[in-house]
């Protein structure tokens, strides 16, 4: 199986980073709804941090996980999809333990 082109991996990492930063921004909005009126500022450093973590850590890890699972269970048959799904669920449980 051919490796993923660098520009595709970079794009996927950027998407994960933007998704994490955007999700944090939305989360902060919902966190502010229940607060007092004097604390309504957006913590842009926190959102930036989440974006950097997504770009530099979560994005590459998820990309590597996807490549490894695709190599271990190639194709889109029902068995391959179920195997990838079960492995992903198992790896997520391992990550929660850390």
Determine the strand fraction and express it as a percent band.
under 5%
One letter per element, helices H and strands E, the order comes to HHH
Low-confidence segments, given as residue ranges, are none
Total number of beta strands: 0
The averaged pLDDT comes out at 88
Main pleated-sheet profile: none
Radius of gyration: 17 Å
The helix content is over 70%
What is the end-to-end distance? 32 Å
Query: Which class best fits the helix and strand makeup?
Result: mainly alpha
Count of DSSP H/I helices:
3
Shape: elongated
Write a structural description.
- The protein is mostly helical and 98 residues long.
- Helix content is 78%, strand content 0%.
- It has helices at residues 6-33, 44-72, 78-96.
- The model has no long low-confidence stretch (mean pLDDT 88).
Quick overview of this protein structure:
With 98 residues, the protein is mainly alpha-helical. The protein contains three helices and no strands.
Key structural traits:
about 0% strand; mainly alpha; about 100 residues; elongated; about 80% helix
């Amino acid at each position: 199986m051919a490796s993923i082109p660098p520009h595709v991996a970079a794009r996927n990492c950027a998407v994960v980073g933007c998704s994490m930063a955007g999700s944090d921004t939305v989360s902060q909005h919902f966190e502010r709804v229940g607060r007092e009126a004097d604390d309504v500022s957006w913590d842009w450093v926190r959102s930036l941090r989440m974006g950097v973590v997504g770009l530099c850590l979560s994005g590459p890890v998820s990309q590597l996980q996807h490549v490894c699972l695709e190599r271990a269970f190639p194709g889109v048959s029902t068995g391959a999809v179920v195997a990838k799904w079960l492995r992903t669920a198992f790896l997520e449980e391992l990550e929660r333990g850390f």
